[in-house]
Write a structure and sequence with these properties.
Elements lengths: L2 E5 L8 H9 L5 E5 L2 H4 L5 H7 L15 H12 L8 E3 H9 L11 E7 L2 E6 L4 E5 L1 E2 L5 E3 H6 L5 H12 L7 H7 L12 H18 L17 H9 L6 H7 L2
Parallel strand pairs: 1-2, 1-4, 3-5, 4-8
Antiparallel strand pairs: 5-6, 7-8
Helix pairs in contact: 1-9, 3-4, 9-10
């Protein structure tokens, strides 16, 4: 692979430039950063593409609601990303929509595009007949969902109990500090200050897949591992060593 382009997510706490610097020190490809993909390559039909990719129910494979009000919502979300939220999108459908908007001269697999998105994406599980939120969707372009980092890997059961308790008391979602004090275990929450560090590993996974054809690493302590629970994310992305012996040979600077 010759080059990797990362795209900023302006409403997220992820520092795209810091992620690019980290990646650049570990791979041979040239790494660059551009502004938000949805702003640079958006067009009059992109809002409808997002409307078509909406997940309607956790247990319904069919997606999409292109009623005028929904399309208008997606138009507003594209113009003002801070207004988006509360929706899950079919990650493969979004990936296809973004692929069609990559300039033709840059669609080669020698040039990986990695938009950091402020949307939650998911993939359908044929094994259990339901949608599963994802942190990343591998391929070209490779999507990395920043809110997916907080929502996709499962948190400790006590976390959800505390959420319910605060909701019943009319307090809405409890602050991060409250959850960290009241819930045992390690997990990330919205706008977590560790977001940038963790996203680095998920971006590297997208490069590794396109460059080698290998999806994820089975070693739970490697940054190429893809855990399904939050404590596993912390262990893989925030604990030393960064990589298993095999991948350390390839990616340790």
């Amino acid at each position: 692979m010759e080059s990797v382009t990362l795209y900023r997510a302006p409403t997220a706490v992820a520092d795209t430039d810091a992620i690019a610097d980290w990646l650049d020190a570990r791979i041979e490809a040239t790494v660059s950063v551009r502004d938000r993909f949805l702003s640079l390559h958006g067009d009059s039909e992109l809002a409808e593409s997002f409307a078509e990719a909406r997940v309607l129910s956790p247990y319904d494979r069919e997606t999409g609601n292109t009623m005028l009000g929904i399309v208008r919502y997606e138009e507003r979300a594209l113009e003002s990303p801070e207004r988006a939220g509360g929706v899950i999108y079919d990650g493969l459908a979004v990936q296809q929509a973004l692929h069609e908007r990559i300039p033709e001269s840059e669609r080669s697999l020698d040039h990986l595009h990695v938009p950091l998105l402020d949307r939650v994406v998911g993939t359908w599980g044929d094994h259990d007949g339901r949608w599963h939120k994802r942190v990343n969707v591998l391929g070209q372009p490779a999507i990395v969902s920043v809110p997916g980092l907080y929502e996709a890997p499962a948190k400790p059961e006590q976390y959800y109990k505390e959420q319910q308790k605060h909701a019943l008391l009319g307090g809405g979602a409890p602050p991060r500090e409250v959850l960290e004090n009241e819930v045992e275990g390690e997990f990330l929450v919205e706008d977590d200050p560790r977001t940038t560090e963790v996203i680095k590993g998920y971006v590297l996974q997208t490069y590794h897949y396109l460059d080698t054809g290998e999806a994820f690493c089975d070693d739970e302590g490697c940054r190429l591992h893809n855990p399904h629970r939050q404590p596993g994310v912390v262990a893989a992305q925030l604990r030393a060593p960064e990589f298993c012996p095999e991948h350390a040979e390839r990616y340790c600077p």
